[in-house]
Amino acid sequence: MKSSIDIIFRFLFLFIIVFFIIYNIFVQLPTFKVSLHHFKKHQKLSIGREFVPLIPFLKDVSWVGYQTCLNSSDPLTDADLMQPYQQAQFILVPTIVDYYHPFDYRYLVFQCSDIHLLRKIQGQLSSKGTVRIFDGVLLFDRKRDL
Amino acid sequence: MIMGLLALLIPGLTGYYILRCFKGRRYSFELMDIFLMVGLGLGISAQIIFYVLIFSGHIDCAFIIGVYLLSLCVLFLCSYRYLSKQLLSFSFSFRSVLIVGVILALVALAASILAVLRPWGDWDGWSYWNYRASFFFKSGHDWPRMFQLNMQQQHPWMLPLIILWGWAFYASQRTIVPMAIGIIFTVSTVGLLIGALKKHVSFFWAVLGGVFLASIPMYLLQGTSQYADIVAAYFILLSSVLALDFLKSPSVSSAALTGLCLGLTATVKDNSIVAALLLFFLIIMRLRKRGLGIFIKPLCWGFITIAVSVVLMRCFEVFYSYHNTYGVFLPGLLDWHKWYLTGQFVWKTLINILWGGLWPLVFFCLIAKRVRRIKGEIDVLIQFIALYTIFYLFIFVASALRLEWLLTASFDRTVFLLAPVVVFVMFYIIGKKE
Q1: Which ipTM value was assigned to this complex?
Q2: Which of B:37-96 have CB within 8 Å of A?
Q3: Sign, CA torsion B191/B197/B198/B202
């Protein structure tokens, strides 16, 4: 009796496992197709690309402030806001990019994908220091303020 | 390619010599040992780089490789007396290696295809783990400054140090290194699972367990995310299977090796510190219950030897930090709405398609365990899984961070750490002969 229960359990488990393995493979097939498509296109790495032009200007700079045109009630948990910020952090190592105290430093990195808004801010800040504008990023150097 | 293979071969050799030092003269090479060597070697590499970093103050690629090769020579001399006395014997057949090799090659292929889709891993994986490695690599003596940024505290440094080992070999920041480390641990975890299961159940069930783990969509997804979770999952599985072997046939060397691997588990991330401590105390309680107190000392020595680095890491982080946003809000435990939300999220996880049916099968296996009356040392692993899950449910509810975000961002990854151990226990229960 005990061994027949044993066999039933094993067969049932085997049946379910095989079912799930096949099901899991089919679930993942579309992802693999997309990935292979990417592989064929030889796409270049693009993460944090917009911050790369800042590197020569921030050489030997320990800290920079960071601001973005996006607003959030809980910025630490907002992926849309944190994603470009963390890209900036990674690209600008060993310079530390500070989101929490953006105006405490000589340099400020302002990230915004709206080019019109960037131009507007450039106009407002140009009287207070040097402003350089790149693709989606603005670098403000408040040299004259300090 | 050659440099990459060398960067993997040297830790592999380190793992091999450490294993030989522990296993002694009567050493029969098991299938599991191949995958144990990889993790053990990479974990010890991280330890060597950590102490080089602490004592020299900065990273010098040539210096790291030099110190590492010197350590390898010392290890070789230590294990030489064992190597010279007996030729290596194998306790597995060529056929089984071939089958496992084909499965792992397929897993590696699948992981590589997914890694190509996300060469930088998940969006915040590289900004946390690879950021740290980048800071070690690029900032010279100023590397402790990275902890001034509040996001870079909290976790130990094993993964960034392993990435650093790869970069030190190439002498440049190659994107392929973090990607390859993810794939290596994804493949090794499956291999380790098959090897560990093979010791307790038939080869058929062991292979099926490995195939099932590899087929779980969440497994491959996390394996290629470049987070530390796959590394932590590997070390938790390693510690668990070594603990099971140790409790089944206790010896001083297996106690020390289990302690060492528990220590390595604690150096991966904060969740793995909790896992290592839980498992450590469960093993001690089991030993005391069985009147095997003499093995507690080597277990503790093995654990403390490595875990001391976690304390040192934490000292650096606390000393250099100025602000910490991660807080615990204990009154949150009395907020029933938080418990309700957590319950809802747990239910969604149980039926999530990405988990590939893993969690419903756990309930099936728990019933099977009761019906088949499987008892013994496996209970330690079941207690470990239950305690870890309960502990983190409390942590989530008590956290001061927004609960919905916290659950979405990290609940899957928290339970992912247990996935290989859960699969191991499931197949142990079903495959074990009464």
Answers
A1: 0.86
A2: none
A3: negative
